[in-house]
Task: structure prediction
Amino acid sequence: MKVFKIIRLDNVDSTNNYLKELAKNGCNENTVVIAKSQSNGKGTKGRSFVSDEGGVYMSILISPKKSDFDATLVTSMTAVAVCKTIEQISKRNVDIKWVNDLYIDNKKVCGILCESVVIGSSIPFVIVGIGINLVRPKNFFPKEIADIATYIFEKEDPCVREKFETRLLENFSEYYKNIESKTFLPFYRQKNMVLGKEVTVISGTETQNAKALEIDDSCRLLVEFSDKTKKYISSAEVQIKLS
Ligand code: BTN
Result:
């Protein structure tokens, strides 16, 4: 496993933002920031991410070797690493919702946000941000997400938390080492809860019904619209809702 330099914080606005500043100031690849809570957690597509105590809020700095590096692959690979970790430590079944969400019993338990940081003219660093609802929040979840979010464990246990974080970094490191050979892809496909399902494809203000058919080697989703036309979609352009 890689040697990670871990910075632990009680609270921060966003571990991704904190690590971005460190990267701009020259910190090394494999620096990891873990916070117990975030006051301004960021989600995908400019949304916020509820980050009360009880979660694991983690950001990992990686420095991809190739300039055409694909953040979608890192996101999908990370989803597999988190999925394996939850299943290994809790024995609960986890599903992946293309492209970056993890679900237990049809409720979201984890989200992933990868961001690039360009420093000078060099190949960008990528910050891999992972937010997991590890234990039941003290005051449960806020109203807006109470019906759609879930957690892994009922009660806090520092040993389990530490074991979880360590295993997550081990799994991440193993899959990342082989990212170019895409060893994570069969599991990513097998665990994906959208395949074969009716979905709503949301692109800006436009919504279309479709069926999710397959995930290609670049982790794009092939969908078939009601008029039988097919299209590969990438996560940057659209949002998927299970119908
Ligand atoms: C999503 O579900 O939309 C993605 C959520 C990603 C949340 C994580 S928590 C750690 C890192 N810091 C952030 O501000 N966001 C990511």
